[in-house]
Structures are given as structure tokens and as C-alpha cells.
Design goal:
Length: 427
């Protein structure tokens, strides 16, 4: 159940650092600790599941030549944003859009874990008690862990309900084609030609790794999930919109996901010695669901701090003003003041691509943010700002309610010829 060291149920495991959750955020952190040469820390990783294989695909933008580049499946200097009336090709230089499959990230983390001499506890963390100097973690069917610091990335609902609660939910097919049908030089970032839901916004996208192999996804930003058949119908519709002939295609893998899009709070420091990372710590950008860049940035900050003998506390994932702007934008989209595809179309139409992407990562200056805000329609945004302020006051005066949990993704049967979850196929 757990490895390394003579740990027994009666003798607690004393460590400097306990990572609760060993998914995306923890994997990036383990790799960062290794990269920054941290060697003298006693580390435990607690997760009932040992993550491996291809269970998700991360797409993100950034400068080339980061230490992630050797792990990428593909990257693109140009991306398309399409609406029913226009196809816009964006040159991202000096940034690039990149695709990273989970397998190489988990492999690198496993290697880092070995080099760091970490203890792996394959059990759920069940309770966390912080007395201000040490944190005691009780694990299901595993040892009690006593840690100086806990970095907790276990999925959890927000601390209280948001003013707007949407989900980014999607299904993707890894498609293998008999003929060259994809353009590997260019990804489709957002294609808003898909039929739009009554409430919310939908788009498709295409991430090609070769002229015959690509991830094609259908995504919605909306309050509720579709059914299994609903995702398949929407994705088949998008495939047809792309002009792809289904008889020359095979579905080799299916990817499903749900990511919160909400202004609800995800407290990053619930107690003195507990730091939350990943989606649980607020790394998911409310207006887009993008998470990877903030997780990567925070992993690097934590590792640098530990290497320098400082507490493992990263900067907030996004500046407070960005969280406020996202709350207003989500409200405007949810209450119908602004149409989703119009909102994103104007954003890319009136700003250089690099500014929009850096804004979505939360790293723009206030002057750049004014320019971004100016590209949205003013009146609905003013209405949403006023509505947001009124809602905050009402929420402060009213009774506290529990936040809704984030639903699990809808998973259908594996199509014939496709790899089961976590499988590896060409690409
Ligand atoms: C299919 C999919 C695709 C995505 N694609 C993108 C993308 O392209 N770009 C982007 O920016 N973001 C993307 N995201 C969002 C985000 O980057 C990922 O969800 C990312 O994995 C979040 O990392 P995390 O560590 O917060 O959570 P996870 O990676 O989900 O890790 C949480 C871990 O906690 C463990 N756990 C659960 N309960 C316990 C417990 N009691 N004790 C200990 N451990 C526990 C789980 O087993 C899991 O390993 C995607 C998400 C999904 C689901």
C-alpha cells in the first residue's frame, strides 16, 4: 500500500512535505522540485490512484523552449478562430500553442518522485488537521502522515456558491484518417460555427499532430452537462462541419472532461500550513477553464521557494482584478447581455492575439487590461458590473449555502477500435 522506509500503522510517517493528490498539479510540482535540485526534503505523495497514461490532453500557450518542449506532442505558431462569417488566422509569435498529453507528464513526475526519494501512499487522504506547526493527515487504510507543510490538490467544490456557476464540458475524439485531411501547421483554437446552446456558448476545435491524426473536440461553456448521446451528436456534427468523411476515419481514443467555470472562491490557503494547488486552489481561470499555465507557474514558484529554504507558498493563481473581470464577463454571458461567440470574436478582433492569450493567463498589465475590456460591448458590461456588485451585497447579508459539487464527466462506451482510458495509440 505504501513504499519506502519502515512505516507501520502505529508509527506515523514524518515528512517535510505531504502532497495530497498526485494528478496534474502534483506531477508538475514533483518535476519542478527535481528541476530545481531539491534533494534533502522528506516528501510523501498521497493519492488512491497512481496516475499514468493518457487520461487527458493539455493545451496551453507560452514561450517556446521551456522545459516542457521535449514532452510536447505538437505545437503551432498559427491558430484559427472561426465564426459563421469569418475565419481568422492568428499569428501567436512570440508565443506558441502547444499540446501536451498526460502520459509524458506522469512519467516525468514518476521519475522525479524516484529521484526525490518520495514515499507514495496509495490511499485517499481522509482528514487534515493543522495545529499551526504540524499537519496531521489521516489516510484511508494507510499510515498517519505528519507534515510540516501540506500541498493539497484533491478535487473539491468551492468554499461557497458562486454568483455564476458554469461548466466547461467537452468530448474529444482522437481521429485517425486514411488520407491526409488535417493541416499540422495550424490548430483550430475556437470554431464557433457549431449550433449554439440556448444558454451558454459552444465551439469545436482541432489539434492536429500530423496530417492524419488529430484531436477533434466539441466544448460547451454552459450551466449543465449533455447526455452521452448529446456529446456524440454534437461532435459528429462538428466533424461534418469540418468536411471530414466518417468512412475514412477511425476513433482511436475518446476524451471527456468537466472543468468548473465560476466566480465561486477556491481558498488557496485554508490554514497556516496547508496550501491548495491546481483546480482546488483556484488555478482554473473562471472565464475559460484553462488551468495548465497557472498550475505550471505555481509549481515553479513552490519549488523555487523550497529550494531557497522558504515556505512553499505560491503567488495567487490570478490577480484579484482578473477574478473580478471574469466574474463580470461570466455574469454578462450567463444573463444573456453578451453572446458568447460575439464576446470571443470581438476579443480576438480588437486585440493582438498575444495580448488576449496573456490576458487569459492572468499576466497582462492594467493598461493592457483596459484595452481588452474596451473590446467588449460597454452597456451589457456595465449592467453585469452593477449586477455583480448587488449580488455580492445580497450574498453578504443572506444565509450561507453549500456550493454545488462539480459533476463527473459523462463517459460513454469505448467505440470499437478505440483504446480504453489511459491507453496509448499512434500520435
Ligand atoms: C480531460 C481534461 C482535459 C483538460 N484539458 C485542459 C487543457 O487543455 N488546458 C488546461 O489548461 N486545462 C485543462 N484541463 C483542466 C486542468 O488542467 C486539469 O483538470 C488538471 O489535471 C488539474 O490538475 P489538478 O491536480 O488540480 O487535478 P487532477 O489532475 O484531477 O488531480 C487530482 C488528484 O487528486 C486525487 N485524489 C482524489 N481524491 C483524493 C483523496 N481523497 N486523497 C488523495 N488524492 C485524491 C485524484 O486521484 C487525482 O489524481 C483539463 C481537464 C480534464 C479533466
Amino acid at each position: 500500500m505504501w513504499q519506502r522506509g519502515a512505516v507501520t500503522e502505529s508509527a506515523p510517517l514524518d515528512v517535510d512535505l505531504a502532497l495530497l493528490g498526485g494528478g496534474g498539479a502534483a506531477s508538475l510540482l514533483l518535476a519542478a522540485l527535481d528541476r530545481h535540485g531539491v534533494r534533502d526534503l522528506r516528501i510523501a505523495v498521497v493519492d488512491p490512484v497512481r496516475r499514468r497514461g493518457q487520461d487527458r490532453t493539455w493545451a496551453f500557450w507560452g514561450h517556446p523552449d521551456s522545459d516542457l518542449d521535449p514532452l510536447l506532442s505538437a505545437s503551432w505558431q498559427q491558430v484559427e478562430v472561426a465564426t459563421p462569417t469569418r475565419r481568422r488566422v492568428l499569428d501567436l509569435a512570440p508565443l506558441r500553442y502547444a499540446m501536451l498529453r498526460s502520459g509524458p507528464v506522469y512519467d516525468r513526475a514518476a521519475e522525479a518522485e524516484r529521484r526525490l526519494g518520495a514515499t507514495r501512499i496509495v490511499a485517499p487522504a481522509e482528514s487534515v488537521t493543522d495545529d499551526g506547526t504540524r499537519v496531521v493527515v489521516r489516510t484511508g487504510a494507510g499510515p498517519v502522515v505528519r507534515a510540516d507543510w501540506v500541498l493539497d490538490s484533491r478535487p473539491r467544490p468551492p468554499a461557497r456558491p458562486g454568483r455564476t456557476t458554469w461548466l466547461q464540458h467537452f468530448r474529444g475524439w482522437w481521429l485517425e484518417a486514411d488520407q491526409p485531411v488535417f493541416d499540422p501547421a495550424r490548430a483550430v483554437l475556437m470554431d464557433f460555427r457549431t449550433p449554439q446552446p440556448a444558454r451558454g456558448v459552444s465551439f469545436g476545435y482541432v489539434l492536429p499532430v500530423s496530417d492524419r491524426y488529430a484531436l477533434v473536440e466539441y466544448t460547451e461553456f454552459s450551466p449543465g452537462l449533455l447526455t452521452d448521446a448529446g456529446y456524440d451528436t454534437a461532435l459528429a456534427g462538428y466533424r461534418d462541419l469540418l468536411g471530414l468523411d466518417p468512412t475514412g476515419l477511425r476513433i482511436r481514443e475518446v476524451e471527456n472532461g468537466v472543468i468548473p467555470m465560476t466566480d465561486a472562491p477556491f481558498p488557496a490557503r485554508p490554514s497556516a500550513r496547508v496550501v491548495r494547488l491546481g483546480t482546488a486552489g483556484g488555478a482554473t481561470r473562471p472565464s475559460t477553464g484553462f488551468t495548465f499555465s497557472a498550475m505550471y507557474r505555481q509549481a515553479d514558484q513552490v519549488a523555487r521557494a523550497l529550494a531557497a529554504g522558504r515556505p512553499p507558498v505560491p503567488l495567487p493563481a490570478y490577480p484579484r482584478r482578473h477574478r473580478w473581470m471574469d466574474a463580470v464577463a461570466l455574469r454578462a454571458l450567463d444573463r444573456g447581455g453578451v453572446g458568447g461567440r460575439e464576446f470571443f470574436d470581438r476579443l480576438f478582433d480588437r486585440n493582438p492575439a498575444e495580448r488576449v492569450l496573456r490576458f487569459l493567463d492572468g499576466v497582462t498589465s492594467p493598461a493592457e487590461e483596459v484595452a481588452v475590456m474596451n473590446s467588449t460591448r460597454l452597456l451589457p458590461m456595465i449592467a453585469a458590473t452593477a449586477g455583480d456588485a448587488a449580488h455580492r451585497v445580497r450574498a453578504r447579508l443572506g444565509p450561507t449555502r453549500p456550493a454545488p459539487t462539480i459533476p463527473a464527466a459523462v463517459v460513454g462506451p469505448t467505440p470499437p477500435g478505440a483504446a480504453p482510458d489511459g491507453g496509448t495509440l499512434p500520435g
